[in-house]
Design goal:
Blueprint (H helix, E strand, L loop, with lengths): L6 H17 L5 H8 L4 H4 L3 E12 L9 H17 L4 E7 L4 H17 L7 E7 L8 E12 L25 H10 L17 H14 L6
Parallel strand pairs: 2-3
Antiparallel strand pairs: 1-4, 2-4
């Protein structure tokens, strides 16, 4: 014996079955997608502050008797970079055991004079030497100072198969590493990543001009 349900009851039962079927796959897709993503790339590839050597090599020919104009410009640029990044000592590393070692030693006074003229005090210059027997005829004079710099990476690690792991919608390991490395390289002051700078004083004169223009014109001027 078959029980015949009224039309209204049949329609309600179909609605209940449809709701039950949809409830199994009706979860929030955005929630599932974001929930499957692992750690933030900024955590996986953090930017850290570290002390690194800032170097510049000056190639010295055996017959040189003075620095060229280009080399002096390079030294002044190095001194300006040091003034912006550090107050530490500058090392003048002279080659030892190379064919041009005597010439480099002769030019060291010219190098020191160019550095001091660029604003580096004499007591902040340190002369050292290094073994340059394997450099051949053009062993460089190396200028070095240490500074705090921002750094991220290294990048290029691919520990997993991207094709095999696409079903889980996860960030791959190297994701975001290049962005972090580029940001670290572009930061002029690494301390900006740690603490914001203090506000500059108010320009009272400029503020008076802006207020006066607003009173006369009814709107601030476009500057």
């Amino acid at each position: 014996m078959h029980t015949i349900l009224p039309a209204r009851a049949t329609f309600a039962a179909l609605l209940a079955l449809s709701a039950a079927a949809l409830s199994g796959c009706g979860t929030n897709p955005d929630k599932n997608a974001t929930g499957s993503i692992p750690d933030d790339y900024r955590t996986r590839h953090p930017i850290v502050l570290t002390e690194t050597a800032q170097t510049m090599d000056l190639p010295i020919a055996t017959g040189d008797r003075q620095l060229t104009f280009a080399m002096r410009d390079n030294i002044r640029g190095f001194a300006a970079d040091r003034a912006a990044k550090s107050t530490g000592a500058v090392q003048i590393m002279l080659p030892r055991g190379s064919a041009n070692a005597a010439t480099a030693n002769y030019l060291r006074k010219d190098i020191r004079a160019t550095l001091t003229a660029a604003g580096i005090k004499r007591d902040r210059l340190i002369e050292t030497s290094y073994d340059a027997s394997g450099y051949g005829d053009a062993a460089p004079v190396r200028l070095v100072f240490f500074a705090i710099t921002a750094k991220a990476g290294p990048c290029g690690a691919w520990p997993e198969d991207l094709v095999a792991n696409t079903m889980e919608n996860r960030n791959y390991h190297n994701f975001g590493c290049a962005t972090q490395a580029n940001l670290a390289a572009q930061v002029a002051n690494p301390m900006d990543l740690v603490q914001p700078r203090g506000m500059t004083p108010i320009d009272a004169e400029q503020r008076t001009v802006v207020i006066q223009d607003y009173r006369e014109n009814g709107q601030p001027p476009l500057r």
